[in-house]
Amino acid sequence: CSLPTCIHTLADTSIQYLGGVVVNKSSQRFIREDTWYGYLGDAGAKQQDGIYYIIYDDAIRSRAKKDFPTWLRHKEFKADTIEGLAKELKLDPEALKATMDNYNKMAAAGKDTECGRTTLDGNFGSPITVEKGPFYGMECKPSTTSFKGGVRIDTSNRVLDWDGYVIPRLYAAGEVSGGYFGKGGYIWGTMTVMSMTCGAIAANDAHKNKPM
Length: 212
Hints:
The chain is an alpha+beta fold. It contains 5 helices and 9 strands, in the order E-E-H-E-H-E-H-H-E-E-E-E-E-H. The protein is elongated, with a radius of gyration of 22 Å.
């Protein structure tokens, strides 16, 4: 799983879920901002230099500061205008202004014909305009937070070979074991459940083995 992470402080942020707009180095949107952050991280990694930016205004920042202060633990770029912010971020001012103007028109009309954003986050809220300065931006780069794949196991956490047969006396627990999560993502907190159960399951089964 990857998170949008500010490359100046390595602080993770999801301020796009409060209304921020995500753009790449060409000042173009490349994904709907209400998508799962893992998908955003994957898409962001494919952009030029693996870098993208989240653009937001003072109203969005004020809400983040009140409800999600940890999302602001990073270096922010600030300017009174979108063009000024673009210069701070070393982006093309005209291109970013055009992108934001188009986004604001779509948000006001209630239909994102560019990337298909329909909410702020999941099923919550509706896209809002980003048009009242001062404006802020952060430079982000995806970072890996955890791994969800590993060797194939059975319900006793015994490792299976290529053909699906148990490899005697070999167990796997935690994130080195595969099969707990599908390809589409994972459920928050499930790693905690795995940490409390996998080792015990493996140990209980291993206890049944006769000494060699």
